Amino acid sequence: MRFPPIPLHTLFSGFIAVLVGYASSAAIIWQAAAAAGLAAPQIAGWMTMLGIGMGASTLLLTLRWRAPVLTAWSTPGAALLATSLHGVTPGEATGIFIFAAVLIVLCGLSGLFAWLMRTIPHTLAAAMLAGILLRFGLETFGGLRDQGVMCGGMLISWLITRALAPRYAVAAALVVGLAAALLGDNVSAAPNVSLFAAPVWITPVFSLPTLLGIGVPFFLVTMTSQNAPGVAALKAAGYCVPVSPLMTSTGLITLALAPLGVYSISIAAITAAICQSPEAHPDPQRRWQAAAAAGVFYLLAGIAGGGIAILLAALPAAFIHTLAGLALLSALGGSLYQALMNETERDAATVAFLITASGLTLWGISSAFWGLAGGGLCYAVLSAAHRRRR
């Protein structure tokens, strides 16, 4: 099979997607693994297999559908695990991962999740994605207070390059930000971890209290806070990829790799938006190349194991926030436009956007789910009222 050449800016979009994904949540993964009682070498092995799992699954799904389908670990799920796994053995944690993966596979095979995603109006899906991305947009400028030179330089370089060579604007911000961080001695010391960390097999242990108390909430959080926004991002970008095969594939991959530390392989939303934007490629039919490049970078990051994750964590938080916000600026604007362009659905989309952006969490389920629920309720009531008036 002959593949068309991949432009440099498309390759860079894939690199930025992986960089943002690792840098924004690697520390949370580390905390979750530590909560399960794992030592540093075992945690580094988790990072190795997570990178390899995300790389292989991204390449598999992207090449299969010729669409920018990125996979990712579940950051909300990791946050839940980091607060829930204290006192749980590594074997019991692995049992939780397998249990949640089985439930995801069942959702994929039954078609239940696909039916829900078909039922959700396009405007609400775009509004939910915009609500998720809003935090990243707001954090773009937060670092100006404490890291004015670094963040200011990134913003100025982005603006100038955006005017002259738009596709390389984020690349310019990355280079300037790294230079400012290094020259300003703003990079913290990283622990001494070997570049490649071999994964360690952990035999699963199934405990009913942990499966019900942690496994079920973990499954719900992964589906509502990671997979649902990921599918919504694909839908908002105009890619009609069958949902059930995506759920089944990611669930099966997680199921196979869970004993090696792969707690979740899900459909990406935030990082996928980088590869689904016009900056990745002006032709929507070729943006899958950015996702394919991200898959290769995932594999390289996996081979580098915990070393890359810790090195990324050594960068200033303001650098990551500014870079992520700039990379997602177009995706945020596009989502807002799609959410609000239909006047009859604008009120419902606004409610979905605001609830999602609020960060509301009830019963362990994140605001992305409640944004869809609240927006869906408004959509149903207002649509019925509109039909009666006609």
Task: Report on the architecture of this protein.
The chain is built from 17 helices and two strands. It has one domain. With 390 residues, the protein is an all-alpha fold. Helices cover 71% and strands 1% of the residues. It is globular.
Q: H/E series, N to C?
A: HHEHHHHHHHHEHHHHHHH
What would the average pLDDT be, to the nearest integer?
83
Distance between the termini: 54 Å
Helix content: over 70%
Shape category: globular
Strand content range? under 5%
Main sheet attributes: strand count, strand direction, barrel closure: 2 strands, antiparallel
Assembly type of the shown chains? Answer: single chain
What Rg, in angstroms, do the CA atoms define? 20 Å
| Structure class | mainly alpha
Adjacency order of strands in the biggest sheet: 1-2
Number of continuous helical runs: 17
Counted beta strands = 2
Integer tally of domains = 1
Q: Which spans have pLDDT < 50 for at least 5 consecutive residues?
A: none
How is the topology of this model organized?
Blueprint: H1 8-35, H2 40-65, E1 71-72, H3 75-84, H4 90-110, H5 112-119, H6 122-139, H7 148-164, H8 169-183, H9 208-236, H10 243-257, E2 266-267, H11 270-275, H12 288-304, H13 306-313, H14 317-327, H15 329-340, H16 346-358, H17 367-389
Antiparallel strand pairs: 1-2
